[in-house]
Amino acid sequence: MKKLLCLTGGAMLMLSAFSQEIKPLYIDDPFPNISFGKIINYKCSTASLKDFKGKSILLDFWFTHCGTCIEAMPELDSMQKMYGDKLQIIMVAHESDSAVTQFLKSYETKHNIKWSIPCIVEDTILHKYFRHLYEPNYAILDPENRLVAKCSFFFMNKELIGAYLKQLPEELYQTGYIDDTSKKTN
């Protein structure tokens, strides 16, 4: 009888853990430090937010048959090169590793470039945290991993990212997320 109770209790705990629903994030919500699973074009095959500490993160939700997503790729590449010390762009696709890898190889050949932006593939989790109706769609996390913006292709450009990155340090000091005593005057 004790074994049956222990087994039943253990099963109930496991079921409750598995049944926990991922809730979508809203502006200023903290993003949990989860593992991103499969990632290509990165130094490791997995990653987490800790790997990008100190940088803002731009998540680009896309897929390989999306014309607008493909059209945005040169702009993303340009932004990554321009703001790489403050910003990490990470592409997020629900498609398979092989489909995305094949697409990126074809893209590199067609445009005579080496694509270096990391891409999360076979995603099942991030799409739940950052719900959206269409792609491309973007989410921006600040260096403290708070969701600061979500937007569509029409609002994503170098000027927007540049303005955000320029005001970011002052905002972090004002909100207390960063404590820099050297900025204080006596």
Give a description of the structure.
Helix 3 (97-111) links the parallel strand 3 (87-92) and strand 4. The model is unreliable at 4-19 and 177-186 (pLDDT under 50). This protein has 186 residues and is an alpha/beta fold. The protein has a single domain (33-179), classed as Glutaredoxin. A 6-stranded mixed beta sheet has the order 1-4-3-2-5-6, covered by helices on one side. Helix 2 crosses helix 5 (158-175). The chain has 5 helices and 6 strands, in the order H-E-E-H-E-H-E-H-E-E-H.
CATH class: Alpha Beta
CATH superfamily: Glutaredoxin
Strand elements, count: 6
Total helical elements: 5
Q: What is the share of helical residues?
A: 25-40%
Q: What number is the mean pLDDT?
A: 81
Low-pLDDT runs of 5+ residues are 4-19, 177-186
The biggest sheet amounts to: 6 strands, mixed
Which radius of gyration do the C-alpha atoms yield?
20 Å
* Spatial strand order of the main sheet: 1-4-3-2-5-6
Beta content comes to: 5-15%
GO molecular function, one term: oxidoreductase activity
Protein name: Thiol-disulfide isomerase or thioredoxin
Keywords: Isomerase, Signal
Signal peptide: 1-19
Describe what is shown at a glance.
This protein is of the alpha/beta class and 186 residues long.
Q: What is the topology?
A:
Elements: H1 2-18, E1 39-40, E2 56-61, H2 67-83, E3 87-92, H3 97-111, E4 119-120, H4 126-129, E5 137-141, E6 147-152, H5 158-175
Parallel strand pairs: 2-3, 3-4
Antiparallel strand pairs: 1-4, 2-5, 5-6
